[in-house]
Write a structure and sequence with these properties.
alpha/beta, Rossmann fold, 6-stranded parallel sheet, 8 helices, binds guanosine-5'-triphosphate, binds magnesium ion
Length: about 200
């Protein structure tokens, strides 16, 4: 079940961090009926007030913005502590046997470590987990290092899709604004997951 276009009834899609939310938002109009969409993000005003997602997890305790390999351990601790309080509510939301699809961009704080923690929490709960992860642009050197350091931590997922921004950007015309480029790239990522 890596084909999101044929996602099982009741599958839950969770966008985590800026990229994860952006991806799920771009996919919303094209998702099969019955797929539930959730998001997890730090305590950002626009996220707190957003009505886009059926359920939101707001990580109020995460203040750290430093996304380098050097800070990875302390950032993970901070995230773990913040996520802990949400786990009962999350387990309740995700009760049942439907697969959970985690969508996140790697390289930053919330997407990288939030999705990894959630992935491993759900695997320990014997959930079927699919990860859709996005590698940062090559020019985001520090973020690429973080992403590469994080990747092995997702090994337990049943199915994995890895997208590369360096590839997705090739589908955007020259002069496209970053916001429009991300929209095109997110749509392309969806298309790539649905080839026969
Ligand atoms: N394809 C695509 N890539 C994105 C998008 N937004 C961000 N990215 C990429 O994803 C990487 C991670 O960025 P974010 O998802 O914004 O980071 P985050 O998880 O919110 O991290 P923090 O803000 O540090 O907590 C970036 O370095 C970009 O390369 C998006 O909408 N689409
Ligand atoms: Mg962010």
């Amino acid at each position: 079940m890596t084909d999101i276009n044929e996602a099982d009834q009741g599958a839950v899609l969770i966008g985590i961090g800026g990229c994860g939310r952006g991806m799920v938002q771009s996919w919303l109009p094209r998702l099969p009926e019955g797929v539930r969409c959730m998001a997890m993000e730090r305590d950002k005003r626009e996220f707190v007030t957003s009505k886009l997602f059926e359920h939101r997890i707001i990580l109020t305790g995460v203040k750290s913005k430093s996304s380098t390999v050097e800070y990875a351990e302390s950032v993970q601790k901070e995230l773990k502590a913040s996520l802990q309080a949400h786990l009962p509510e999350l387990d309740q939301q995700l009760a049942g046997s439907a697969p959970v699809i985690l969508v996140a961009g790697l390289g930053g704080v919330i997407g990288t470590w939030g999705s990894q923690l959630l992935c491993n929490h759900l695997i320990a709960r014997e959930k079927q987990v699919v990860t859709v992860l996005v590698m940062p642009f090559g020019f985001e050197r520090e973020r690429v290092k973080v992403a590469e350091a994080a990747l092995p931590g997702f090994d337990g997922a049943a199915h994995r899709v890895l997208c590369f921004n360096d590839y997705l950007i090739k589908h955007t015309p020259d002069g496209t604004s970053m916001q429009d480029a991300f929209e095109i790239m997110n749509t392309k990522a969806f298309d790539l997951m649905s080839f026969p």
